[in-house]
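User: Can you predict the 3D structure for this chain?
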Amino acid sequence: MVSVVKPSLLGFDHQELIAICERLDVSSVHAQKIMGKVFRYAEFDLENIPHFPKKLLTWLQENTELSLPEVVSAQKSEDNTQKLLIRMADNRDVESVLIPGTGRLTQCISSQVGCAIGCEFCLTATAGLTRNLTTAEMIKEVMIAHRTLGEYPRNMVLMGMGEPLHNYEHVAKFIRMVTDEQGMAFSPRRVTISTAGLVPAIYRMLEDDLPCSLAVSLNATTNEVRSKIMPINNKYPLEDLLEAMQQYIATRNKKRILIEYVLLAGINDSLDDAKRLAEIAKSMGSTVNLLPFNPFLGSLYQRPSDETVAMFSHHLNDAGVVAVVRISKGREISAACGQLKTEVNQRAVHLREKRSAVP
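Assistant: Here is the predicted structure, written as structure tokens:
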């Protein structure tokens, strides 16, 4: 007998909940009650909603599931960054990171199990892509943060495992749900999608008027270097990406795009690189996040010296560009940018290989 997997209630948006109410011939006000109870306050006890119709409750219990996945590992670094390893229903693991800051807390959300982009400097890329996460699974990451913290984080960035725009349909619905004023009510300014440069999807974001901010992981100022470290540049070269970024800014009423730039020693950290990056950033009015590379075992690249990072940053600032050197938080627990790769699974694989080698 084949078991039927029920869809998660956390994957239903407000309009879908209204449609369920209408189909069951109950008032649509109960959809708003679900949004408030479940999504606003992360409470799952539907039976305690006042004056909630029995037939709606029964239908939801019989046709949907409302639960959170297991957190199989939780690590906290010295700077209070927390990395959560979350096991989904099919036993696939993803990582989500809670990053403290002055007066705020940011959650780094994963959108895929693994990643297909293949950036040379990213540990996640070495795992390849297993599958996309559903909207409900991404919502569950946020719900787990609420259970962990007792409240929702202030900021949300889709910069975890995966390329968000490769999983456009689920990510777009997720963005609309977390910014829904009836539910979690995140400000669109505090929800950011980070992309390696999927040009068609950037244009689609414009067409759909997706309520979020955009960050682009640029990481190089020439096609030669960018194609070397980011194979996606072979399909969507730098000039096409920059044109899409300019179009995004113009269409979104001069809304700024954050430029992310991972500094790799001897690869993209020269004065000439800084000069070209300054020209790009100034033409778009963009802030630049400089991220000195976080080395990992087997990586091909090295972290630049502090002097090189300072030189690069100072040149951008002197050119009138706001450039911030981001301190890598959670490095000792492999929670910093580019380091997510479900380490528990890695250790399990290593242990199996070690055992199999014993005669």
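Residues 9-63 form one domain. The first helix runs from residue 14 to 23.
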